[in-house]
Amino acid sequence: MATIQIRTAIPGPKSKALMDRRNAAVARGPFHSTPIFVAKGEGAVLEDVDGNRFLDFAGGIGCLNMGHRAPRVLEALSKQLDQFLHVCFSVTPYESYIAVAEKLNALAPGDFPKKSVLVNSGAEAVENAIKIARAYTKRPAVICFEDAFHGRTLMAMTLTSKPHPYKAGFEPLATDVYRIPYAYAYRSQAGTTVEEFAHHLEDAFKRHVAAENVAAVIAEPVLGEGGFVVPPREYFAALHKICKKHGILFIADEVQSGIARTGKWFASEHFGIEPDLVVSAKSLGGGLPLAAVTGRAEVMDAPGVGGLGGTFGGNPLSCAAALAALETIEKEGLLARSLEIGKKFEARARGWQKKMELVGDVRGLGGMCAIELVRDERTKEPADSETKELSKYCYEHGVINITAGTYGNVMRILVPLVVTDEQFDEGLDVIEAGLASVAEKRQLAQATV
Ligand code: PLP
Q1: What pLDDT shows up at residue 449?
Q2: What are the percentages of helix, strand and coil residues in the chain, rounded to 5?
Q3: How far is CA 105 from CA 64, 176, 343, in A?
Q4: Atom of ligand 1 nearest to the CA of 61
Q5: What total number of domains does the chain contain?
Q6: Residues 149 and 295 in one domain
Q7: pTM surpassing 0.85?
Q8: Which atom belonging to ligand 1 lies closest to the Cα atom of 220?
């Protein structure tokens, strides 16, 4: 039986009424990928307030790798509800915070002593990673990448690449941040080698900032918001080697790519690197807000007592949920499942690419997969309005999805890894029908010009 059930026009009357209230009461700033208000979530399925049932291919932007309301997470939360809610780790500490840190220290790549600190959001973790790197190296500068996304707080938005909507109007930005191109093969000159991509870092030391002033290089192992770009396998090792030569720390922002999304606990593992610091968030909390910086013990201990932390960082409910979420990933084999999902997606999407010029690139790492839409396979003109249209088609036909990319022309898949094969196929059928519909409209429009 089909999972998707659409009973009303999308959005339905109750969602519409809520959107009116939202517009009256909530600031314009927070963006919505869909006009649908949710009533219930389970596994990879969402039900809206009008009784429509959707497949969730967005997972709250990659926060639900273990699925909505994962049973172990619910059980752990319910136990924690009977104990205490908030006490503040800085006032009266508790065991679950330590257990999450121990788990992350064991899971993060690198065969060396590690420590962690817990905070509330990806952006906050990025801010802390930079503070820690500066405290350790006693250097001010940070190097980041084109097409990067690191969050919306001051340092995080400065590190983020895209001016609109993330930075423009919010200046002045943080200082001592320098940006180099990422290894975005699809939009680079054909045949660009790993050495050429990595050379941008050495070049930055000549053109922008002295290497001895650089505390850290921060990179997403797979670009998230920037369009799920997967660099060549040897890229980060080449960058890390340059960092080591100059005493610069390498920070992997694994907020979106971490916690099983790519078929490994951290995407860095695919690239054979051991970052000095790893930033995690999103699926770490099993649906609750939790983020972390994990790294070399001596680096993590550079800030003094009281220099890191916050009122709610690593709150007891989030820690209980995190331990259960990590256990779910382990016990339900979700690392392997992510790889299967990636393979299944690639097989289908390559078929679309063969049939439709619109599908310019198919890429991904495990279950972190995407298609990049273009108007012309030769010029690679980004098909941004078509991507929006595809996204709308998909949610109107029962697949919640999100787009990405500096040009807004990428559809990304962050489906909960507990999705069944039948559900995943059903969702992919909707995307395929959506692509066909968008391509057909484009042909008709061209024929009438
Ligand atoms: N870093 C990456 C790679 C992200 O994808 C995100 C959010 O999407 C962030 C940082 C910011 O995380 P948050 O929205 O939890 O602040």
Answers
A1: 66
A2: 40, 15, 40
A3: 21, 30, 29
A4: 8
A5: 2
A6: yes
A7: yes
A8: 3
